[in-house]
Amino acid sequence: MILDLQRLALCMSVIVLSPFVAAQSATGAEIATPQQSAGTSAAEPVSVPEVPGLSTLHGVNAGITFSGFHDSITGWSTLATPALGYSFNDIFSVDATLPIYMYRLSESRSPHPRPNAQLVNQRGELGDLLLAFHAQFVPRDFLYQVTLGVTAPTGDRAYGLSTGRVTFDVNNRLERSYRRFTPNIEIGAGDSTALVNRQVNKIYTSLGPLAHFQLGLGIDLSHGIYFESDAYEELPIGDQKIYGLSRNGSTVVTGFNVSEDNGFTNSLDIPIDAHTTFSGYYSRSLRRRTDTTGIGITWVIRPPQAEEETSADDLFR
Length: 317
Fold this sequence. Notes:
Blueprint: H1 2-32, E1 47-48, E2 51-55, E3 61-71, E4 75-87, E5 92-97, E6 100-107, E7 119-122, E8 125-126, E9 129-137, E10 143-152, E11 167-175, E12 181-190, E13 205-207, E14 210-220, E15 226-236, E16 239-243, E17 253-256, E18 261-271, E19 276-285, E20 290-300, H2 312-315
Antiparallel strand pairs: 1-2, 3-4, 3-20, 4-5, 4-6, 5-9, 6-7, 6-8, 9-10, 10-11, 11-12, 12-14, 13-16, 14-15, 15-18, 16-17, 18-19, 19-20
């Protein structure tokens, strides 16, 4: 127990101190390099994983995503995710999202369900309200973003939509662009897997301290199309509780490292017009041996800034 607390304290210390180090580096970089080179990352809007295209760099913005996703355990579900964002300046911003499950299959809570009624339809159920606070800095050689996420228990714990408690997560993302290619790394810690890898919809939530890591590569394709491939690891620290599909609404699994997970995620965003984005993803959990796919349409009130298109000659020069 003491060792687990020491590990968590070490992780949190690194995560909390990282923004201050990046802020000092960013200040020095602004003085030393007033112009951005081709091998560095310029400041860009903080993105909301659930609502692609929603940015808060220009003040108030709002949007909504309608999506359908399929996992290899319960099948298809449909989801609406409205979001509202506001930026205080070029560094600090905040956003709020609330998932609304318009249709999903969950295990029947009847003590003696019929053989053909093991899964029942659930409509209009809320997930947990998420508040995310962002800060981004641009030191000399990379872009650094830190996000503090906090959830309010507005979802139903009996169906794996909530832990029934307030949860948090602190995530650090560093990336550097080389023309169209952007490698990235993420390191974070918190107490729920629901706040990790937020783009992928999960059929369960967990409660307990954990650290998480991600390594990926983004590719800026033609006409604003963006593809990203990431490998992730969610590493619990101590005892965990998993809330999921259950007939009696109680905890499904309790134990040491029960929420550990690792795998990879591939995502693709295709802008239809200035306000609309079509997106899709595929995620494979190697530890749980499950597959999740999703597609969605996002509409935002204020579109992101248009970027200058890089020619094919510049790409291979």
